Inverse folding.
């Protein structure tokens, strides 16, 4: 799928991230495919998914475009960290390849510019930049990514930790980048998604608030405990 076609399909609409880590009860390609079906029925127009197995299962289950990523490792750059990871998710059917585009070093030492160029040249897939700062977003845009999101804001040393979406970074990205900006990261409520669109976001990615019941339950449990005491 060309970047233009993908962006036209998701403009002003909801993308649902269907992911579950290995230590979560819902982990597994079959379950994530069911999540994608539920998301489509609910109105999602695209899916964001992790790993070749999950992407393959989701592509078989729904006729929606998939933003693919491949998490490898547990710290530093672990969202599609290498060309080999990108090639695997492309082969599994990912329409767009999401990857960490922060300024941090990649595990194999490949410069980000070289990795992006190789993905574009060899895999022929549009790329989705997960960033934590405006400078990272600007550098990714210059390197040819089709879209960017403040997904990693709050998860790197260069970005402030916070409970909700980084609306400040989102606003600055929308105002300055020459490419579409996708709102992603700690969007827990429909009102936050609406606000992101009003600030200029091209579309919205929601994950944990929809597809991770363990996280949702924990959020309620913490709120109840605080209020009770």
């Amino acid at each position: 799928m060309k970047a233009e076609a993908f962006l036209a399909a998701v403009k002003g609409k909801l993308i649902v991230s269907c992911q579950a880590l290995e230590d979560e009860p819902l982990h597994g390609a079959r379950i994530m495919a069911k999540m994608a079906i539920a998301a489509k029925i609910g109105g999602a127009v695209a899916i964001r998914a992790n790993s070749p197995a999950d992407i393959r299962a989701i592509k078989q289950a729904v006729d929606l475009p998939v933003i693919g990523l491949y998490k490898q490792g547990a710290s530093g750059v672990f969202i599609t960290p290498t060309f080999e990871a990108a090639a695997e998710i492309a082969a599994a059917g990912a329409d767009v390849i999401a990857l960490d585009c922060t300024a941090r070093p990649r595990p194999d030492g490949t410069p980000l510019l070289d990795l992006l160029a190789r993905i574009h040249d060899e895999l022929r897939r549009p790329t989705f930049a997960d960033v934590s700062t405006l400078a990272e977003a600007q550098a990714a845009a210059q390197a040819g990514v089709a879209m960017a999101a403040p997904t990693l804001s709050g998860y790197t040393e260069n970005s402030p930790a916070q409970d909700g979406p980084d609306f400040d970074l989102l606003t600055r990205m929308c105002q300055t980048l020459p490419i579409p900006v996708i709102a992603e990261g700690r969007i827990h409520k429909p009102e936050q998604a609406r606000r992101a669109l009003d600030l200029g976001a091209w579309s919205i990615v929601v994950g944990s608030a929809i597809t991770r019941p363990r996280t949702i339950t924990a959020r309620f449990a913490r709120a109840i405990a605080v209020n009770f005491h």
